[in-house]
Write a structure and sequence with these properties.
This protein has 132 residues and is mainly alpha-helical. The chain has one domain. Helices cover 53% and strands 7% of the residues. Helix 3 crosses helix 4.
Length: 132
């Protein structure tokens, strides 16, 4: 019995496995963040990030970022929004996802939908809060 498989097919399978491993690692990190938030909440502390695991209603990536931002009742950074989106199962852009999120957050800030509570510089990121 001979097996007919080409080396190109094996390479394609390996690439697919690599991509799926990467996705699994991202999901594991998101679950770890959610578990930490739940522990903080159970311990009487305020969670470090808003817990949003409900279905995202927006149809575009911008809508989903706006949804994540508007559900927050505390300060947040662009990295926090990225973590929330990952934990909610939102597919992020393959190229520079944090930059895309930062551009949308900046638009919301310029549109006076959110306010900057801390002017970041260097390794310290800007922090924002939703205007209520």
């Amino acid at each position: 019995m001979a097996i007919s498989i080409k080396t190109g097919e094996i390479s394609a399978l390996r690439r697919k496995l690599h991509a799926e491993r990467k996705l699994l690692e991202e999901r594991e990190r998101a679950v770890t963040v959610v578990e930490q938030m739940l522990r903080e909440e159970a311990g009487g502390k305020k969670p470090s990030l808003p817990l949003i695991l409900r279905r995202q209603t927006g149809t575009t990536f911008k809508d989903k970022v706006k949804n994540a931002v508007s559900s927050s009742d505390q300060e947040f950074t662009v990295a926090d929004i990225e973590t929330i989106l990952k934990a909610s199962g939102v597919p992020l852009p393959k190229i520079n996802p944090r930059s895309r999120i930062a551009m949308i957050v900046q638009e919301l800030h310029e549109g006076h939908e959110i306010e900057r509570t801390f002017e970041g510089s260097g390794r310290n990121p800007h922090r924002y809060k939703v205007k209520r």
